[in-house]
Amino acid sequence: MLTVIKPQKPLSWEDAREIWRYRELLYFFTWRDLKVRYKQTAIGVLWAIFQPFMTMVVFSIFFGKLAGIPSDGIPYPIFVYVGLLFWQFFSSSLSEVSGSLVANQSIVTKIYFPRLILPLSSVLTKIVDFLIAAIILVGLMFYYGWMPHWQGIVLLPVLLFITFMASTGAGLLLASINVKYRDVRYALPFFIQILLFVTPVIYPASIAGKYTWILALNPMSGVIQAARASLLGTQPVDWALLGMACAITAALFIAGVLSFKKIERYFADII
């Protein structure tokens, strides 16, 4: 019996069906990444909590206390931690996805499997980190006596999905470039650092004044603002901004998948 493997059309349903057929491989890649990350570490998965917690402490001291940045009447540690949760999920997923093909070079060049599984498994490991780190947010709310709003609990999976799509779309675009040009791994950390300051993580979007529209071009701005508004219940959710974030994320995801599928047939040759 002869099996012929041909490149699929971009954005075809066959890609989704193929990933579903290889779902066990997706699971094992995700489980492998989790085990490798925390292998031979003293505190294990607690690193997923330590990093955002210590970042929150530093930001609260320097930006909340010393700089006096407003937090819309919310205790600054809670305010900044909500932003950090989504921001670190996005930034770490973006970094992992962009380097997923190069990191698995030996597998890509030897056997066939849907290449989309590699970046998807990278993002799935970050969802696990997100859920673990969210424990600190629960503790902060309990400490400050701040009850989460029911709307935030309902909207949380939607915001998590938007962040997933945004990081995957941008990551696929960068992964495609990174296969041929390894400059991505040098430029991306700098880009992420700059992007942090044009995302309302450490400050409320209202502080930008007439330049708020610039923040709106960043899909993570809409996600973080909606997360704070819905979880903390201090203001109504800006549905127009969230809708804009969804539109930009959808465009970014489509562009990422198209770029990935266009170069996919050459991955094994040039990686």
Salient structural properties:
73% helix; mainly alpha; 0% strand
Please provide a written account of the structure.
With 271 residues, the chain is mainly alpha-helical. The chain has one domain. Helix content is 73%, strand content 0%. Helix 4 packs antiparallel against helix 11 and helix 7 runs antiparallel to helix 8. The two termini are 30 Å apart. The mean pLDDT is 85.
SSE map:
Elements: H1 13-21, H2 23-38, H3 47-66, H4 76-98, H5 100-103, H6 105-108, H7 117-144, H8 150-180, H9 184-197, H10 212-216, H11 219-232, H12 239-264, H13 267-270
Helix pairs in contact: 2-7, 3-4, 3-7, 4-7, 4-8, 4-9, 4-11, 7-8, 8-11, 8-12, 11-12
Task: Give a quick summary of the entry.
It comes from Candidatus Azambacteria bacterium RIFCSPLOWO2_01_FULL_46_25. This protein has 271 residues and is mainly alpha-helical.
Helix percentage range: over 70%
* Order of helical and strand elements: HHHHHHHHHHHHH
Uncertain residue segments: none
Radius of gyration, CA atoms, in whole angstroms: 20 Å
| Contiguous helical run count | 13
Beta-strand portion reads under 5%
User: What structural category arises from helix and sheet content?
Assistant: mainly alpha
Largest sheet: none
